[in-house]
Write a structure and sequence with these properties.
This protein is α/β, with parallel strands linked by helices. It has 2 domains: about 25-260, P-loop containing nucleotide triphosphate hydrolases (Rossmann fold); about 270-370 and about 450-455 and about 480-544, Rossmann fold. The chain is built from 21 helices and 20 strands. α4 (about 115-125) packs parallel to α7 (about 165-175) and α5 (about 130-145) packs across α7. The longest helix is centred in the middle third of the chain and has 18 residues, at about 195-210. The two termini are about 45 Å apart.
Length: about 550
Amino acid sequence: MGWPVTAPVLDVQGLTVRLPAGADRVHAVENVSFAVAPGEIVCVVGESGSGKSVTAHAVMGLLPPGQLTATAGRVLLEGDDLLRKSPTEMRRIRGDRISMIFQEPMTALNPVMKVGDQIAEVLDIHTRLSERERRARVLDVMTSVHLPEPERLIDVYPHQLSGGQRQRIMIAAALVLDPVLLIADEPTTALDVTTQAQILKLIKELRARRNTGVLFITHDFGVVAEVAHRVVVMQHGRVVEQGRTEDVLRRPRDDYTRMLIRAVPSLSPPPRAPAAAAPIVLQTTDLSKTYLARGFFAKRREVKAVKDVNLQVRRGETLGVVGESGSGKSTVARCIARLIEPTGGAILIEGADVARLGARALRPHRKRVQIVFQDPYRSLNPRRTVGAAITEGPMNFGMAESEAATRARNLMRLVGLDPDALARFPHQFSGGQRQRICIARALAMEPELLVADEPVSALDVSVQAQVLELIDDVRKRFNLAVLFITHDLRVAAQVCDRIAVMHKGEVVEEGTTAAVFAAPKHAYTRALFDSAPGRHFEFGKFEV
């Protein structure tokens, strides 16, 4: 008797996966149950450590042996229990009946294989097609995921493609055998907002065309609102709520679900008092940065990363610089912090031009501009205590060790951490706590300008909200000028007084946050807003 058409393509029943001895809890996932119907997109949502990716890897049979072990439950793919399959049987199933798209395509693709060969490899393993038939099938699936010039792209390497094109190659490889189930594990997290919108549209289109069930792992409720038919919310390895998207987003039953949805930043900027009369802390005039790209055989060429950028930030004000990867926004931040040397223009910090200063002359100005980076773990030396990280800067500028230690303790309290934790190392803190430590380290120098370069993009949504609130609080408390670099329009709406939109190295639009969000003038700015996932949904307004 065949599998009923109306039955779910995936039915997870009571899945439990044990963690190794000594972990912070017994199970990575415990008694997890949900289903995915043919042609349905089910989003599994949760913060880091919720168990959502472990669940996806358990379905794929990719749990690391000896570390994570499925101890109970069933994972039924069209009635077959995948937990009872041998490794050899699972290899036949993967790519044929079930496929997975990973978060970062550059690490998932082989850098020394042409992308067409990587798609064809799936056909080589699972079919008996001839080389000519395989190539035709690869071109067909590349066309179906809207890759331009598939006849040319089939013979290029991953590094020759953009991030969005690499993700389309991953999707093409996943769909080349028409699997009944597609697992997408944070497939748009590493992508720009316009590329993200294209990938989400593509997944919805392919789902409808092929009637493929999609299990979509994400932490982004904007994505949930955009693509999901049903939602499964996970916390600490357990399902706390599941249901139709409309029901979960508008009428959530669990407190954790409500907290997650409330933490999603709104696209509506809150009222903010103007800082028009305050003194100017930062002013750039025709700031430019040009790189010389060299190849072994290619001619030297110029890449203009930043072109004639004019910015101004006043004391007590936050200026947001918004744009996609390659727009030049982070290059601007690094020039202003003098981590790289600008090619042209002026950088005035309270009237003093630091653009052309050498290392010795620049040293007295270093403490005036401090930067908080995107990844707090890479920003901190793993071999030094957080206390040493915070006190190092002030002591380098002549402060006594006892005074620097007192300042560190006070700053730990300010950023909401226990001062007694100064003797601990970075790995002993969560991601959000590490970012708080990086903010404390920057404030220890008593800067005039704080540069925040994507400071919350690596954090969970609830932690993100806390760190944004902290940055806004220290701005008010210390009357700081803040330059806030971000690609996230929701984040910019909540913390920025004014917005500068960058595209291909140039500022294409600038104004108060309220004005830009209410009526964006430039076509590129409008494209950014149109691409924001869940832009038509007002999160946090629950129905009784």
